[in-house]
């Protein structure tokens, strides 16, 4: 009975020891086997591994691409316009041995703290260069700047065993205290442009009105000139007609003009005209023989 119990205990210890010596590495992980703090084994391929129970331990690290967001901070480009920059990076653990030697037991947290310092330093250096202005940072050329930040940060990150895949600037804004002044300057600039446009519009309108007034005056003058010429030609034509008519039959013309004078003078209005009956004005109201008789003689029938 005692032998059976001892055998069962030994078997149980053996099973526990076996299970304690086996570990599994996932395809998304890398593993280090440590013995008294030193690296005894490196497992970068997925599968089953073995270690010495109670003496060795397994430390696993994520082999996927990880993300790191930096804190917002101010940079000053060459044109002295301060900007608040907020960036993020994509990285992965390339050399797990160097990574362990660099960060020790701190792991990912310690590595990200050191990587944040590297990124912030390179961002300040690249964005604060002499040839870089705020307009360059805010334009499409910022991709070139981000690649430069990534390449320079990679040189420092190699000591951590980290491969920086990408660096991006999430936000690039003006500081809060400068926003109002910037908006005021933008409003003033737009108001100045609006005033210039209004002034140019008024000037163009005045030119159009002056040209229209000039055209009206010229048109009226030309019309009046043509009207005067037409009236002069009509008067000349009328005078010519009268002259031709008078030359054709002077007596009839004299008679016609006398009839017009009678029509105008003898209207029966309030005006009074005193004339002798034998006046030459009334010569067409008598028979030709009546003009030679005395006033007392009766007129011929």
* CATH class descriptor name of the domain at 66-174: Alpha Beta
Average pLDDT reading: 81
Low-confidence stretches: 291-301
Q: In CATH, what is the homologous superfamily of the domain at 66-174?
A: Band 7 domain
What is this structure, in a nutshell?
The chain contains 7 helices and 9 strands. Among the domains are: 2-62, no CATH class; 66-174, Tetrahydropterin Synthase, Chain A (2-Layer Sandwich), CATH 3.30.479; 256-268 and 275-292, no CATH class.
Protein architecture, described:
It is a single chain. The protein is of the alpha+beta class. Among the domains are: 2-62, no CATH class; 66-174, Tetrahydropterin Synthase, Chain A; 256-268 and 275-292, no CATH class. The protein has seven helices and nine strands; from the N terminus they run H-E-E-E-E-E-E-E-E-H-H-H-H-E-H-H. It has helices spanning 2-21, 96-103, 107-127, 134-138, 142-157, 176-248, 250-265, and strands at 22-25, 29-35, 38-43, 47-50, 56-62, 66-69, 73-75, 83-93, 162-173. The strands form three sheets. Strands 6, 7, 8 and 9 form a four-stranded antiparallel sheet that branches. A three-stranded antiparallel sheet has the order 3-2-5, with no helix packed on it. It has a two-stranded antiparallel sheet with strand order 1-4. Helix 3 (107-127) crosses helix 5 (142-157) and helix 6 (176-248) packs across helix 7. The radius of gyration is 60 Å and the shape is rod-shaped. It starts with a helix and ends in a 36-residue tail after the last helix.
């Amino acid at each position: 009975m005692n032998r059976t119990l001892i055998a069962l205990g030994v078997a149980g210890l053996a099973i526990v020891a076996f299970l304690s010596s086996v570990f599994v590495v996932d395809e998304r992980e890398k593993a280090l086997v440590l013995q008294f703090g030193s690296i005894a084994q490196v497992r970068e391929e997925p599968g089953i591994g073995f270690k010495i129970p109670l003496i060795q331990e397994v430390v696993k690290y994520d082999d996927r691409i990880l993300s790191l967001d930096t804190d917002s901070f101010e940079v000053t480009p060459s044109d002295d316009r301060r900007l608040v920059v907020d960036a993020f990076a994509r990285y992965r653990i390339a050399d797990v041995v160097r990574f362990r030697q660099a960060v020790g037991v701190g792991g990912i947290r310690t590595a990200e703290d050191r990587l944040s310092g590297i990124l912030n330093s390179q961002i300040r250096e690249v964005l604060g260069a002499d040839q870089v202005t705020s307009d360059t940072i805010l334009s499409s050329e910022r991709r070139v700047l981000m690649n430069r930040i990534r390449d320079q940060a990679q040189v420092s990150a190699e000591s951590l065993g980290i491969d920086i895949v990408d660096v991006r600037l999430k936000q690039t804004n003006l500081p809060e205290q400068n926003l109002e002044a910037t908006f005021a300057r933008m409003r003033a600039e737009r108001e100045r442009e609006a005033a210039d446009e209004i002034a140019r519009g008024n000037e163009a309108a005045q030119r159009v009105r002056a040209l229209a007034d000039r055209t009206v005056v010229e048109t009226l003058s030309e019309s009046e000139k043509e009207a005067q010429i037409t009236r002069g030609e009509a008067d000349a034509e009328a005078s010519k007609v009268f002259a031709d008519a008078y030359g054709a039959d002077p007596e009839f013309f004299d008679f016609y003009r006398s009839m017009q004078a009678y029509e105008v003078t003898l209207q029966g209005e309030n005006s009074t005209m005193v004339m002798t009956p034998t006046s030459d004005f009334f010569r067409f109201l008598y028979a030709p023989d009546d003009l030679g008789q005395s006033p007392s003689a009766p007129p011929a029938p």
